[in-house]
What does this fold into?
Amino acid sequence: MVTRLPRWFTFLLILIFTIGLGVVDNLTGYEFHFFVFYFMPISLAAWLLGLAPGIILAVLCTLIWFIAGTLAGAEYPSHIHAVWNSMVRMTTFLVIAFYVAKIRAMIDRERTINTELRKALSEIKVLGTLLPICAECKKIRDERGIWHPMEAYIGQRSNTQFSHGYCPECYKRAMKEAGLDEPSHEREAARH
It folds into this structure.
């Protein structure tokens, strides 16, 4: 059985990896661009933990990238250049976080739909097989040998709801048994 790490611990591991990436980025100098390597921790956070942790890590990666570059000696002609480069990177990081989280949500949704579909197909398969049914009361025996009213058995295994009425033959028979099958003028004459 696979045990999952707590969310906070997973986030902490990803954050430590990101800080390590920032240290390597700093040690290699600002001439080497580690921009795409920051996609890994952002993608991991968004995939494993969701959109909000992915966004938080995107902002942290921007800060770590900026600090690593500054400590490595990156110089900009003006503060506007530094802010612009940081915003471009953060926008890219946020887009990565958003789409990775969205893809994960779509895959999870598809898995849920597939599970529901398999369940529905198995129920259809059960309803499509021979059912042991009482010839008198019409109860159906399940796989455990328990007898259920037909409406309850089918209703539990499908979205079917029942309404009751009479078919034409049963209607005529019920009317005849109740003595109401003769036309009203013949009944009236028989009473007098």
Q: What stands out?
A: Residues 79-127 form the longest helix (49 residues). The mean pLDDT is 86. The beta strands are 140-141, 147-148. The two ends are 85 Å apart (CA to CA).
